[in-house]
Amino acid sequence: MIKLNSNICAICKGRKLLCGRPVCPILEKIRIAREVTPLVNREDIFGSSPPSVFVGEYGYPKVRIGPLVPPIEGDTSYLDNPLKWENARIEDVIKFRSILVLGQTRVHIDLRRSDRIIEELQELAMSIKPIDTEMLLKRKPILKVIPSEFAPPLGPSGEVKNFEIAENPKVPKKVERVVGDEIKAKDAVITLYESGFDEYYIIRLLSVGLLGLKPRIVPTRWSITAVQDTLGNYLRKSILNFEPIETYEVYTSEFLGNRYVILLMPRRYSFELLEVWLKGSLFGSEDPVVLHDCEDYRGIKGYAEETTGAYYAARLSVLEHLRRRKRQASAIVFREVTPAYYTPVGVWQIRVGVKKALEGIPEKFYTLEDALNRLRVKLKHPLERYLARSWILKQLNQRSITSFLGVRS
């Protein structure tokens, strides 16, 4: 989904960039489509799946599911490994996804009945290395890129007629044991994470119904949030006995048109995401509003209604940082989405953007006032608008904040 003004587009024709974006999203997608069309415009696809599987949510409990297969062989893992896209551009991500053909079929989420395609998909999902895959579609795939705020974009797709794995998948013994054990999905997720498997591999296993006492197919979007929420809650509990950090710390990064400013405070753990789609951005408005979700040391109540999947992705990166340091802190992540983010690419970019910020050297301050003064310089949206919505800052010394704002208490 790209929000554009047709009148401006007619005048601009992609040359003057009147929409304020660094590239024309329409022309960029046309350019990439021209590059990949000769490769994917066919019914028979043979190539090395990264490996990758997608499960849709529309029509639940009957969902579309299938492998993602590129028409190329060799090491294709880079096509579906978001946590390694730290240096990628949006156009790189679109190209990665445009060359992956989704061969889809509809199945019921209940796995009580045997299904050969599901069994093949489960073997594919367990592999930790690209695996040669043969796929025959009923007709040539539809060439379009579907953006998503949760998962990486989807490229061309078509109804699958036949699908076979052409070689034995490489499956770690640890994974075989966890999949074979009768343990809860939550425990399986944590076990695999602590064994060194990244969450996108675990997401894949959960999506194809390989984890849990009552395994069932889970839409990819739901699996992403479920895994990141499970790991976040696990890490939150693990840091509560650590000592707080000693100073106020401010971190900054910019990634794919998103600006991240993170404030860590020397207090008991709490977390908040404050998100703004700036004027001219994809979902921005003339008067941008601050979206907000938060939690204290007990965790979030219910679901992050305003920031949705971004919340769990940002929180997981913050909690990993704190556990690595063996410290706890009260954390606020400010996410400012600029016009440069011209199409959604998934919450993985939030996960990576926050992680990149926290890997940098922080600016340290001994008072909240000094830290807020620094935030005022770093943020594009007025700090007062953030303060008006921030639950964490409202819980701190009100007199200190009103003094900072120049308001009489």
Automatic annotation (TrEMBL):
InterPro entries: Nre (IPR033167), Nre_C (IPR006979), Nre_N (IPR006978). This is DNA repair protein. It comes from the Archaea. Belongs to the Nre family. The keyword DNA repair applies. Residues 18-283 form the Archaeal Nre N-terminal domain. It comes from Pyrococcus horikoshii. Residues 295-404 form the Archaeal Nre C-terminal domain. Keywords: DNA damage, DNA repair.
